[in-house]
Amino acid sequence: MVTSSSNSITSTARSPPRGNTNNASSSSSARSSGSSRRRPKKKSVSDRTQAEAQELIRDLIKAAIDAGPTAGPARTLQAYRALASTVQDFSPLQPFGKTAETFSAPKAVRKLFERLGATYIKLGQFIASSPTLFPGEYVLEFQKCLDQTEAVEWSSIKKVIETEIGTISETFSWIDTKPLASASIAQVHAATLKTGEDVVIKVQKPGIDGSLKADLSFIFVASRVLEFLQPDWERTSLAGIAGDIRTSMLEELDFEKEARNIEEFRYFLKNQGLQSQATAPKVYRDFTTKKVLTMERLRGVSLLDEKSISKITANPESTIITALNVWTTSVTSMPWFHADVHAGNLLVLNDGRVGFIDFGIVGRVSEKTFQAVNELSTALTLGDYRGMAEALCNMGATDEEVDVDRFGEDIEKVMNSMAQVQPEVTLATDGASVQGTIGFDETELTQLLLDFVDIAEDNGLRLPREFGLLVKQSLYFDRYLKILAPNLDVVGDDRVDLGGQKSAKSTDNAQEFVNANGDTKLLGNTAVNGDNTIIDV
What we know:
Layout: H1 50-67, H2 71-90, H3 105-116, H4 118-128, H5 136-141, H6 154-165, H7 168-171, E1 172-175, E2 181-182, E3 186-193, E4 198-204, H8 208-229, H9 238-252, H10 255-271, E5 278-279, E6 292-296, E7 300-302, H11 306-312, H12 316-333, E8 337-338, E9 346-349, E10 354-356, E11 362-363, H13 367-381, H14 385-395, H15 404-420, E12 424-429, E13 434-439, H16 442-458, H17 465-484, H18 504-516, H19 521-529, E14 533-534
Parallel strand pairs: 5-10
Antiparallel strand pairs: 1-3, 2-3, 3-4, 4-6, 7-9, 8-11, 9-10, 11-14, 12-13
Helix pairs in contact: 1-8, 2-3, 2-8, 3-4, 8-9, 12-17, 13-14, 14-15, 15-16, 16-17, 18-19
C-alpha cells in the first residue's frame, strides 16, 4: 500500500524481482583498491550468431503473416497522408489566414499518432500511463491524446451485432442508433433487452483488427531489427516492450477478456460481502462475443460531481471512503487491480453505491514488488523516508549501488510537494447565481509521478511500469479525498481500511475466485505468476 500523509492514499502492488540493493550506499570501498574497471566491449551486429539471425527471420515471417497481405499497403498510404498533414501543421507555408503551430517533437508525434488511428492512439495512451518507461515531456504531451473518433454508421455496426449474436429484433426491444461514445476500437450504444433490462452494447468497429495487426507487426519488426543491428540497445528492452504492447493490444480485440475481468470483480465483491457498497456491470454472456460486449447500464454521477453526490447521500465523505476501501481491498485480494480509476470510471449510483466501470486497463504484478510496496506503505505511514528509499530499491532494477540516505532526502522533497497540491475551484455565473465546481488537473498528477520517477532514476533505479500504474491510481484517490473529504485523516480514521497485508490466504482467495468462474482459470494463473498488463478501451 502507498499512503501519503494528511489526506493521502493507499495503493498496493507487485512486480518482477529486481537486483539486490538492500543496504546500498555508494562507496569507493566497494571497489577493489588500485584496480580500474574495464568498460565492457560494445557488441556489434558482427557478434550476432547464426541462431540469433534465424530467430529474427522467424519473427519477421510470423509478423508478416499476422499482419495479412492487404493491410500493410493500405496502412502505408494512410501513414503517408497522416505524416503530410502533420508536417503541414508546423510548416511556415500556410494557407491564407492560418498560422503555423509552434513546433515541439512531443506535440508533433502526438498529432501524428492521433491521425494514424486506433493503434497509435492506444500506443499514445500506453506512453501516457508509463512514466517509468518514457521521457517526461512525451508522457505529459500524450495525456492530451484523444481517443474520440467519428462514429461508424449504424448500418455497419448493426451488421457486426447480427453477425456475432443474431438478429437484433430477437434480442433487443430497442437500440439507440446514435452511440453514447465512440473510441478508436469500439463504440457504445444504449439498448433494452427483450426481457426489459437496460444495457449498453460495446461493439468493435469493422475492419479494425486488420489495421491493428498491421501496425503492431510493423512496430514489433522495427524494434527487433533495430536491436539486431544495434545489440547494445538490448539493454533498453525495446523489443520486449514492443512485444508486450503488441500482445496486450491484440488481446484488446477480444471483448470476452474484458467480460471476464468484470465477472471476476463482481465475484470479489460478493466474496468480500461488499455488494451493498459497490458494484460493477452485470455481463450478459448470451449476448457477448469477441466483438460484442453486452452489459448492464449503470446510472450515476461522476465522483467529482460533489453537488449531485450531495443529492444522493448526505455524507459524500463516506462515499469516497467506500470507493477507496473497495479498491485497496481488491488490490490485496485479487490477482490484478483496476488500473484506470479516473473520475469517469467511478460512479456514485442513484442507490448510493459506488459503481466501477471500464475494466479494460488492469495491472498485474509479482509477489516481489507487492512485498516491496507493503514495506513502502509502512515506511510512508511512519514518515520514514529512508525506509521508503530502501523499499523502492527492493522493487527497482539497478546496476549500481544506491546512496539510500540521499535517495530518502529526495523522496521527502517530492512528498512535501505532493501535500501542497490543492484541488481547482471554478466559478461560473448565469447572471442570476454563481455556481462552483471542484476538480483537479490530471497533468499535475502526472507531473508528480514523473518527479518520483526522476528521483528514482537520478539515484540509479528504474522502477517497473506496474508501479507507475499503481501510484497513478493512488494519486487519483488522493485528489478525490481532497475534494470530498478534505479533513479526513486516512491513517488515523477507523473507517478507512487500507486493505491489509498480502498473505498466503489472499493468494489462495485469488485462485479460488478464478476457479469459481471455470473458464477463467488460465487468466488467474497468469495473474498470480506473471506481470502482464492488459490495455483496453
